[in-house]
Amino acid sequence: MLDLITAGYLHSLRTYSELIFTAVLASSSLNTVLRKPTHGKGIVSTSINIIGPERIADDVGNTLADASAYLQHPFFLHARIKYINPQYFYSENEKKDLRHLIGPPMASPRFLRLSEGVESLLESLDDLSRLAPSPDRPFVSAAIGEGLILTTLKRFGLPVAVKHQEDGVKFILNREDPAFCDSVTSDLKALISCRSSFHHPELFLGGIVADVMGLGKTLTMLSAVVYSKDAAMEFVKANSYQAKPQLTRATLIVVTSLLSLPQQYHRINCNDMSCCRHLKPGTLRVALFHGDTRAKTTEALIDYDIVLTTYRTLAFDWKGHRILQKIGWFRVVLDEAHWIRNQSSEQFKAAEGLQAERRWCLTGTPIQNSLDDLRSLLRFLQFQPFAKQAFFEEHIVEPLRSDSHDSFRNLKLLLRTICLRRNADYLHLPPKETKEVFITLTPEEREVYDRILKGCQAEFDRIVSTKSETKKYNVLFTTIMMLRRLCNHGTLQVAPPSWLFCEVCGGEDENIVTLLGSLETSPECSRCLVRQEC
């Protein structure tokens, strides 16, 4: 029996009748299980080889990529079988046999060295020497003095009592300063020694804020939006002669889920001082681009400071009217930017197609599965020539395959130029304490709890009576998730009668389910994606 994630990946290939799946297990793993007194049952690491005719390799690779699945090198393959990986970068047009790469990667010292090296490199991106503002730039706390920002930017015990979120704002403002960016890009060009490849690259403004969760990436970016309001107005005036695209001073912020939109909205846009979490009421004009009431013209969005939308709505708009694509944004910010790591997905293509002077990625995991995750962000940021696959492979990936002491040099230079990351040490949290506290549900909470269980039972009855293709494990998983949310937060809105189905597949955008490919559960709320009427 395979885990649900792996099974889902293989399920995406169900239309390829010529494929064969072979499970490969290390004998050492089996021996460990057989020695345990569990009657031969246990969990072991398994590799699945996908075997089929070479003519469909590219199609299979693209289908897997759409499902966010990425092929790794097998650690075993029978003789006389050619190994072609359609997701592997071939420097030449011919796809050559890659049998020399077959082997157990996790046991490889080189693999461990690369993994540890990348992690160490990410932890070194908190150097504050890059954050000194230009002499003619006003100190970034001016807006605090004017009372525009209500939340105090956090201070912690660095030698000069620097505020880490304030430093984050300085980093953002530096990366949006054309003179500064031109200077550091020139330095990067000289250090990597590839002058010919940097033939007059287009200046790119923006970067990556990769602080770990809890350091306030959202507040940092909101503060930068406040500080740059004058620059945003100047951007529109300076380019007012352009007929297309229609320019706006607004920053477009893309978030992962519609569930987070109300929270984000009330953080920055309200008239009541008691409920506005971060900003003085009226500091920023905010619009939501989501649902049936979203703007139908570009003119309806240009007179705002911030426009909020989700990745799903962005992709849906990209396939349809392209309202967001027709606007020239002052700034585009991708929250949880690792959502676009799959470069063949509609979400990535929709984000890449946005027109903006400044582009930002907020993510705690800029390199989640492989270095190709980073290249996806570089493509969105339009940081050339590093966003080009051949250049990235030659100057960033290839050096890492060597055993030299400076194999990480180019990657470090690149990330230090465009990325800022601080870890949880900056929060100075006290040691973790774990306590078990038993509570009794209130009558209201018990009513919701029982309603969820009854809904689960009713859904099981429906599946059995109608011979539905909905998987029972989806219902169980969804129920557990909902009960956990209820116990964690004490409240959970359950909207009968279709309590089980999330807004993605049964809500405001009738065709939005087509964006989700073959997924059976929502990536946003883990609820079932199969609508009852289907």
From TrEMBL:
One of its GO terms (biological process) is DNA repair. GO terms for molecular function: ATP binding; ATP-dependent activity, acting on DNA; hydrolase activity. Gene3D superfamilies: P-loop containing nucleotide triphosphate hydrolases, Tandem AAA-ATPase domain. Residues 198-384 form the Helicase ATP-binding domain. InterPro entries: Helicase_ATP-bd, P-loop_NTPase, SNF2-like_sf, SNF2_N, SNF2_RAD54_helicase_TF. One of its GO terms (cellular component) is nucleus. It comes from the Eukaryota. Keywords: ATP-binding, Hydrolase, Nucleotide-binding. The keyword Nucleotide-binding applies. Transmembrane segments: none annotated. Pfam families: SNF2-rel_dom (PF00176). This is Helicase ATP-binding domain-containing protein. The lineage of its organism: Eukaryota, Fungi, Dikarya, Ascomycota, Pezizomycotina.
